[in-house]
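stuck on whats below:

***
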Amino acid sequence: MLLSLAFSPHFPQTQCCNFVPGNGFQVERGLEFDTGGAFYRRESATGRDLGVLAASLQKKVNGSLRVLDALCGCGIRSARYLKEAEADFVAANDGNECYGKTIVDNLSRVCVKEEKKWVVTHLEANRVMTDYYVEKSFFDFIDIDSFGSDSSFLRSAINTLKYGGLLYVTSTDGFSSGGHRPHQETKVADVPSMALCVRSPTSSISKCSM
């Protein structure tokens, strides 16, 4: 897995035949949820752990945590950000409307909709990020969990970050945009699972392979 740190300019599904969608209820880090037929990979829990850790540290630094989960699938990442990172608000988006009830049910296990701590949308990822950007509704933390290359999402995501925000990117079957191949990789079948972490704003980049 590759972990990279960098900064942004913002101031104040295709399913591989080697993968099988999750089925029914699962438990991850003590949180029960329904996959609802969405793709779910247990082995990627470590990547989700790192996302929760990064989001928790982001809240500790900033005092608040507003999260956008742009490709949320069944919503397990969003639910964990609410429960474990204690996010103040999570926007959970997935382009597949068929997952709508599953996402709502999973988030409702953490906090009821009436608390207004989360919202569910079904737009293309770049569209939802661009809409928030146009509305000047920026985020402390954006999670991009793509199946394949993440490169098409990076511009929209970085634009939608708050000043000092954090972008967390994972990629199941492609190399995340970290600049080079890592020396060590977490393999899924014959393809790597990777992560990229970007903070705004600066031009410096530090990298480490895990």
About this structure: The longest helix spans residues 45-62. Confidence is low (pLDDT under 50) at residues 1-22, 184-194, 202-210.
